[in-house]
Amino acid sequence: MSTIKDVARVAGVSVGTVSHYLNGTTRVTRAKAERIQEAIDALGYQVDLGARGLRSGTTKTVGLLVPNISNPFFGEIARGIEHALTERDYLTFLCDTGDDPRREEAYLANLASRRVDGALVIYADQGADPRRLRPLVDVPLVYVDRGVPGMPSVTSDNRLGGRLAARHLIELGHQRIGAMLGRPDVANVAARYEGFCDELAAHDLEVPDELLLTGRQTLAFGSEVDRLMRLDMPPTAIFTTNDIVAIGAWQKLMSLGLRVPDDVSLVGFDDIELSRTILPPLTTVAQSVPEIARRAVARLLSLIPSEAPARSGPHSAALDDVPIEPRLVVRESTAPPPLTEARFRNLGVMPLAN
Amino acid sequence: MSTIKDVARVAGVSVGTVSHYLNGTTRVTRAKAERIQEAIDALGYQVDLGARGLRSGTTKTVGLLVPNISNPFFGEIARGIEHALTERDYLTFLCDTGDDPRREEAYLANLASRRVDGALVIYADQGADPRRLRPLVDVPLVYVDRGVPGMPSVTSDNRLGGRLAARHLIELGHQRIGAMLGRPDVANVAARYEGFCDELAAHDLEVPDELLLTGRQTLAFGSEVDRLMRLDMPPTAIFTTNDIVAIGAWQKLMSLGLRVPDDVSLVGFDDIELSRTILPPLTTVAQSVPEIARRAVARLLSLIPSEAPARSGPHSAALDDVPIEPRLVVRESTAPPPLTEARFRNLGVMPLAN
DNA sequence: TTGAAAGCGCTAACAC
DNA sequence: GTGTTAGCGCTTTCAA
User: Fold this and answer.
1) Residue contact B49–A115, C-beta within 8 A
2) Closest chain B residue to the Cα of A245, Cα to Cα
3) Nucleotide C11: closest residue by CA–C1'
4) Which residues of chain A lie closer than 8 angstroms to B259, CB-CB?
5) pLDDT at A342
6) Contact assessment for residue A59 and residue A116, using Cβ atoms and an 8 Å cutoff
7) pLDDT at residue B341, as a whole number
């Protein structure tokens, strides 16, 4: 592997000149520039970015901590982030924490040793305080998706998302509404459900205790939906705090011979790709993944000193921690509530009242 | 950020000694070792892995090229690989190529500049010759999932997988069998279908032209299954070259009021997590993702000179390119073919013959 | 066992 | 514009 020295020798110039040519730090005469380029081509020279980093103090690398890269939602975020970073000439260290706070800490220590220029973290939502991660690296750190109050965060307005879902169901005429929640100590889940209840309350509605299910945000949890549907008075609509749960519920409903939205409406959250392709396509609160990714990277870069301050013009929104507005995507899993008679017949039980 | 020099000064020893202590290169007297450790703790010293890499010629990093990290199958592989690599103290550069050969090349060039110790690649299956990637880096490169004959590759025995699927359907008594394939110029797809046809042929069966559908391996393609089911003589079983397509088909079938496996059996390929959770759970040819990941990393490390030769004992299978045996996972999407009369009634068309 | 010193490939300050 | 050179933080001879 040839070095800058070799290039200099072959081109008949000094290493300094080659370096200037490479970095555009100074003008280089046309003639020398050509000779240098020829030497580079001839030798197949490639800069050693590690050496450059040692000298310049900036490695052009960023660490990305995700709980589980095989979860399509995180996968989509990681993809967006990685692409945005690549565009700015950064390479991404993938750190799959498995939602384990200990692994999370180990990764951050390693990243610190690697002198990454920054870190993007979707923290492990297992009770450990996300703030403890901040001091583990002394470079900019931005929390993504799962925000941390008072720290640079890029997240959706989960509360608003919950409100949008509720409003939609209310407008369709639903009154008996159930909910299937991820663990409520997870900040995003809590915010979504709070927003949902807020909006309900504004219309003198609420989710009755017997229509509230809590669990992990998995397909398996979603399939517990039958516990709701076997009640004497099943809900006419169900809100779930993410799409995976909604899809799990939908599968179970189908297997029970219940139709969505004819027998029960379903609203999800996230808008993962799968939601668009199931039948009927899911009405859901869409988080704009590309927007989250874009903003996360912009925010991080704005904190990296070696980056030109993003823009001198009007203070860019990307630099603040304004939560990203989710939007309701109405598809075909929601409809007005079924007539009482019809649905009880479908469910194979007698209505309590006609 | 403090350096090894600071540690040496505080501990009152030379940098060389600190380095030896850090790397265990030489015994260090108890007293000095303690003083060094104290200095390290006091200063919060962390080695600069970049500087170490420059000097030692090994960066302890590996590049991972994947077509699309938000595809759960690749996500699972990436996850397994990243974990295995982390265990061996390597950090992973995530490179999402978007199945674009040009991006693929750009990434490899960048990785070369970063002096990674090796690269793992699931190449972009878009017609570009995967072999062209080999010379772009001068470190070990292992092809994963999508193998390349004659190059270090870790893949499943796709041909065998196809055979297993066929055998299963034959044993159940199916004779009229359809198939939904990804683009047949994709090596893995071709191998799966060849194996499938081989086994069929061994039993004097074949997939008639009108029961063969080709497309991209997406949910959307899967939903074209109705083209098969609307034929005068629809298949009693369908083989798909991956689970995503099978799931797409399954969704469409449900929406048409057809039951799996009552009306038609479905066999997938891959065994992604989702297959286990749909209803009925999918019969599929399982690729052992953990095994692929483990083997890929073992193979790569075996090619990295700075790694101790994996094991001196009996030549480890992990070091060869023996394809990994897939296994058939029989779940509930397959059953004996329906009686002719019953199925034509279900499909709402008249049987051609009784 | 320890210290001194060279040098990995590069950038940047400085002198010309 | 261009060349020379110090030095980024570390490992690794080589002597002692």
Assistant:
1) yes
2) B277
3) A55
4) none
5) 54
6) yes
7) 53
pLDDT tens digits for B155-187?
A: 999 999 999 999 999 999 999 999 999 988 888
Q: Do A13 and A75 share a domain, yes or no?
A: no
pLDDT band at B350 (very low <50, low <70, confident <90, very high): very low
- Please give the average per-residue pLDDT across B123-141, as a whole number: 95
| Boundaries of domain holding A237 | 158-287+329-347
Measured to protein CB atoms, the chain D nucleotides within 7 Å are: 1-5, 7-13
Give the CATH number, domain containing residue B8.
Answer: 1.10.260.40
Q: Domain for residue B354, yes or no?
A: no
Enumerate the residues of chain B whose CB falls inside 8 A of the CB of residue A94.
64, 78, 82, 92-94
Distance B8 CA to D15 C1' (A): 20
**Are the beta carbons of A75 and B76 separated by less than 8 Å?**
no
Instruction: Using the structure, give the distance in angstroms from the CA atom of B53 to the C1' atom of C12, rounded to a whole number.
Output: 22
CB nearest B50 (choices: A50, A82, A95): A50
Do the chains contact at A83 and B75, CB–CB below 8 Å? no
Q: Which residues of A touch B53 (CB under 8 A)?
A: 50
A52 occurs within a structural domain? no
Distance B178 CA to D11 C1' (A): 63
CATH of residue A95's domain is 3.40.50.2300
What are B39-58's pLDDT values in tens digits?
999 999 999 999 999 999 99
Is B67 in contact with B74 (CB distance < 8 Å)? yes
Which residues in chain B have Cβ-Cβ distances shorter than 8 Å to A135? Answer: none
Sign of the Cα torsion A20, A21, A22, A25 reads positive
